[in-house]
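User: Predict the structure for this protein chain, please.
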Amino acid sequence: MPRLWLINQFANTPELPGHTRQFEVAAGLVGKGWQVEVFASDFNLTQRQYRRLRCPQLWCSERPAGIRWTWLWVSPYRHNNWKRQLNMLSFCLHLLLRLGPAAALGRLTGRAPDVILASSPQLPAAFTGLWIARLTRIPFVLEVRDLWPQVLIDQGGKSAKSLMVRLLAWMESELYRHASNVVVLAKGAESYVRDRGARQTAWLPNGPDLDLFAPRPLPPARALFTVLYAGAHGDANALENVIAAARWLEQQQTPLRIRFVGDGPEKQALMHLAADLQSVSFEAPVPKAQIPDLMAEADAILLSLRDVPLFRYGVSPNKLYDAYALGRPVITTVAGAINAEVEEHRLGVSAPPGDPQALAAAIQSLMNTPRSERQAMAERAIQLAHTTYSRQRVIAEYNALLRGVIAA
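Assistant: Here is the predicted structure, written as structure tokens:
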């Protein structure tokens, strides 16, 4: 039975808010005969609080879905300042102290993992995993969720010449060059990582669990057309653009409700910005297991991102594919591949990022679309989810890729 160590600081189990890709991949691999141990931070990224550990605990383990899941202590933070950097470094140190000796001892006793898989965007943690793998001669696979440090330049305004960006770029290059395989979530990122040294690449996108996100009928006709945004409330999400669109639509007395579900550093400012709007509501984040019911209540699902060059080819938004599988028309403001896919397959409506009037017009257009055509959008989305994005397909390909790495 092959053994896998899976490293991602921000991995979550389904009852917690935040992405659950690592849980779903790990559980799927367990079902295909793997022994999987996941190493993640107990400090929840969305809620900014510890969920399992109680002082003075430094780690604990549990076994959800047959996975050995190890929660590690990291230093806490509230805002994206130096304390966040310390939070990431403390995770790396904990990995080094716990996994380094375990891997070395495992090589002597035959209990070492057969492969180590590290998932970004936390490049220092992936880099730590790489060096543990290299020192103990264990094959290493990198999964690229976000393209660091490019996103820090395009979105965060960092200089490519800054010490931090140059250090991260060096880590990125080392990871690409030494990984047995580099898995990308966004199709457009394959050429990016190859240009920077990756030898073998695979596109295994985010995607829905088709058992969890089974198709649901559109809601019955009602007084208010409901649009749902469920996800992070951060700078990258440009939700002030959505609020500006909502304000314009409210002035036109449009029968609309926009629900914002989630959390993030910009949430309080956004709530203040929308305080006078009757059509907008803000709600707490919910666990992944509750997302299907939440999405089923909406007439359409909104995906919003800022106009960042990297987002034109380098994102794989899970909520979008969940909406496809559930059978909901989508509203997207992501220039490049995402908007193009929605338009090409006629899955909903799109608007350029940063243009609230265009977004308002797109929402109105979808509201005025006959129910029969919105149902057809839903059916096309369901078909695309099954043929291209299903979690089941991704897990089958991951299983084949990792077994191939071990056999090489």
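The mean pLDDT is 92.
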